[in-house]
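Worked example

This section walks through a single chain of length 448. The input is the sequence exactly as stored; nothing has been trimmed or padded.
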Amino acid sequence: MELNLDLAINKKLREILNEDHNFMYERKAKFKVPGKRGEMEESRAFNCICACLDRIDSLVVHCNDISKNIENIYGLCDILNYGQTLIDCISMIAQIYGVTYNSEGDISCFNESGLDGKGNDEKFFKYIRSLCSVHPVETSYHPSYQGEQPEWCPWISKAESQSHIWQFDKDCSEKLKEADFVAIVYRNDLEYNKHVYISLKQIYKYLRKRYSYINTIIDTIKKQNEEKICELRNKHILLPEECKDYDSYLNELKKAIEERCGDNSSWRINQWKTILNSHFKNHNFEELLELYKADLKKGIEKVHLSLQRMELDYYFEKEAVDYITSFIPSEYAYSLSKLHYLEPIWENEAFDCEEILSEDRYTGDYERLVKLLNVVTHIQSNMDEVDINIVNREIDVKYQTTNAEWARVQLKWLEPYCDIKFNYELGDWYLYLQTIVSFWKIAKSMEK
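Given that input, the structure is written out below as C-alpha cells.
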C-alpha cells in the first residue's frame, strides 16, 4: 500500500501561477507579524507562494517515498509530520487566494466525529499527529477527542502486537483488524490505558484528498486571473492626444505597465523619456536622432496597443524599437556586452532624467582615454596578427580601467563595423545613445 501523490498536480499549479506571473508577483496577503501575537499585516505574497510551491514539490516526493516502507513508529511519525507540512503549504496558497477548504463535518476518511460530535478528518489527523509525534506529553488542544482531560502518549505499538489482548472484545478486535498502529494513551480518569487505532490506509486517503484540493485552488486562480485580464482589457489607457504632453502620456503608460506587467517592467518609461528628451549639438546626429524618435513613438504605440489588449506579461520582452547587432562579428561579442557600462540604471527608484541629460561631456581624464583609444587604433591596423582578448587583458592590467573607460575601449573595437564615427568626448549617456541610433540605422538599411 502506497500513497502515490501525483506530482503533475503541483506542476499544474505552478504553471497556472506562472502563466500570469505578474499577478502572482503583485499578489498581497495578510501574514502574522513576528513577535506580535495575533497581529496580522498585509504584504507581498510572492516569496511565500514560491516557498510553498518548492516545498510541495519536495514533500510530495518524500511522502511518496516514506509510504513505500513504513515498518516502525518513526515511519508513522514521518508521514504524519511531513503530511501535515504538505497540507500547511497547500492551505497557505489557498489562504492567499481566498480559497476555503470546508472541513466541517467531513469524516469521510477516518469516520471519527469525536466525543462531542464536532470532530472531523482534519481534527482527527492533527490529534493522532499530536499523540504520536509533535507533543505526546502535552496533548491539550483536541477536546473533540479527549474531552476535558489531559492525555499523555508513552508509546505507539504495531497493531499486530496487540491482537492477543483484544481477542475476547469484538468491538476492539474489529478496530484492530483495520489498524496498522495503536497509540497507547494515559488519562487520569481511566484505570486502564486508552487506545487510539491508526490506519495507514485512512491516513493516505486523507492526504490524497487534501492534496487533490490543489485542483480547486487551480480553478479559482484561473478564474481570478481571467476576470482580472478582462477588467484590464476594458480599462482604457489614455492616448497621447488625451494628455497634456507626451511626457504626461508616458506617465500614464507607466501606470498601465505597472498594473498589467508589474513594477519591474516600468523602467522602460525612464529609458523612453530620456531618449525623447535628448538632443545632440551635432546637426547630423540630431537629424538622425529625430528619425529614431519618430520610430520609437511608433513602437510605443504598438506597446500601448499590446498593453490594452493584455498581450504583454510580466517579462515584457517586446522592444519598442528593434535593432540588430548581427553585423558585428561574433568574436566581438564581449565588446558588445560591455557597452551597457555607459547606460544609466533605469530601474533606480531615484532615477532623474534631467540629471542624466545634463552630463553631456565626458567627466574622466580625457588625455588618458585618448591613450587607451590610440592603443586600440594601432592594434586595429594589424588585426590579423593579434588576439583581441589578449590585448584587452593587457590593456586592463596596465591601465586598471574604469567602467566608463572600458566601455569606450570596447566601442572603439566595434567602430569599424558601424557607419558612424563615435564622439568619445560625449558623456556616457550621449555616447550610448549614439550607439543605439547607429545600430538602429544599420538595421533599417538592412530591411531594404
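What to look for: The mean pLDDT is 91.
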